Amino acid sequence: MTETSAVAETEQLVAEAAGKTDGAAPEGPQFTLELNQDQKDIREWVHGFAEGVVRPAAEEWDEREETPWPVIQEAAKIGLYGFEALGQFWADETGLTLPIANEELFWGDAGIGMAIMGTSLAVAAIFGQGTPEQMGEWIPQCFGTADDPKVASFCSSEPDAGSDVSAIRTTAKYDEATDEWVLNGQKAWATNGGIADVHVVIATVDRELRSRGHAAFVIPPGTKGCEQGAKVKKHGLRASHTADVHLDDCRIPGSCLLGGKEKLDERLARVREGKRSKSQAAMQTFEASRPTVGAQALGIARAAYEYALEYAKERQQFGRAIIENQSIAFTLADMKLEIDAARLLVWRAAWMGRSGQKFENAEGSMSKLKAGEVAVWSTERAIQILGGNGYTREFPVERMHRDAKIYTIFEGTSEIQRLVISRAISGVHVQ
Length: 431
Ligand SMILES: Cc1cc2nc3c(=O)[nH]c(=O)nc-3n(C[C@H](O)[C@H](O)[C@H](O)COP(=O)(O)OP(=O)(O)OC[C@H]3O[C@@H](n4cnc5c(N)ncnc54)[C@H](O)[C@@H]3O)c2cc1C
Known about the structure:
It contains 15 helices and nine strands. The protein is an alpha+beta fold. The strands form three sheets. It has a four-stranded antiparallel β-sheet with strand order 2-3-7-6, with no helix packed on it. A three-stranded mixed β-sheet has the order 1-4-5. Strands 8-9 form a two-stranded antiparallel sheet. Strand 8 and strand 9 form a beta hairpin. Helix 7 runs antiparallel to helix 8 and helix 10 packs antiparallel against helix 11 (326-354). The longest helix is centred in the last third of the chain and has 34 residues, at 281-314. It is globular and about 80 Å long. It starts with a helix and ends in a 5-residue tail after the last helix. Mean pLDDT is 92; it is low at 1-23. It binds flavin-adenine dinucleotide (FAD). Flavin-adenine dinucleotide binds at residues 121, 154-157, 162-163, 189-191, 234, 237, 242, 406, 409-410, 413, 415-416, 419.
């Protein structure tokens, strides 16, 4: 068979498999990885902001270790920070726009990216567990306005409850006389903790039920008894504020229980009867957000890869560009390969989440695990390719490496993702 006829035969086979032998449009959904115009436009728009505003500010805010309010405000002014933007990203039924926007923003800088996107974790909790009225009331308040932007915080972790969410000790007790919930406890490592207007707090209403006794509460702005504790000094992601949050007899209206009391009482009754509960407050929020977090890690990995690629073409040693050495060129090839592979996992999980597919094999966890590990590995390789320069603060890849490391730790460590995946694929309660 000639090469041309082999190609023609292959095309015919593909066409037949797609049910497209007579030029008619194929029936049913088509698989495509080509982005539509809206997705491309949003990608360009976010990339423009990342390149023009975020990247140039990255070093300064990393050194200052402060929330970059002026950058958040600029993002709010162009409509990139706010519930309308998040709503627009979420509206894409393929699920891809949210990870695409995150990848581009974090390509600019992860610390500033998190200062802008950190609010969305609290929003995801309200969106996932709140009633329509609660969403309408609280989600806009999470962002404030373009002139006066605010941030929100999602507080689940505690000093003794990190990976083991079921060990949460913060209590929420209902005061029937006043129709108020009273919260007491200490939250740890909360992104935007204490500087947020709206805090979403996971607390236990019945400790005996462990994670099935958890519920999510909105702490309205200015509530007494909700205070910032120690601010955390960090290895990376330093433009993003992280702090403890103390809750001391913190009284909030009964209506601040996400989902409402009736639904909670029903769920607790089901659990006490030994029936399975459909939801575990913190876990639901994490499941929905894992591909987005993976996309953030991808943005860092891609930024480091692109920087290292350009550097390797420019840097001369032994009379030639260092990229002419296979060890450098192959490393860059592997970086590109790993990043693209991670993106496919992220997009798959984002599509599954948005289209309501069941995560049979913990595909959300797979995406976050792979992207986080690729980000750590790629940024470390980028430092190696830049040599001495890579190790200095004069070049951005060392910051990218510091930023990348958190992606194997928060939103479930790599070990916890492997635990989730291994349990899902085996049905065995792997310890
Ligand atoms: C910058 C930053 C921002 C954060 N933002 C937030 C936030 O906004 N809201 C929030 O609620 N939390 C937040 N966190 C907390 C974060 O989610 C936790 O740090 C994370 O879940 C890990 O918990 P831990 O630190 O207690 O580690 P630990 O749970 O103590 O784990 C320590 C080590 O033991 C391993 N390990 C634990 N259990 C097992 C097991 N069963 N099998 C195998 N290995 C295991 C872990 O993988 C890890 O390597 C943030 C943390 C940081 C650093």
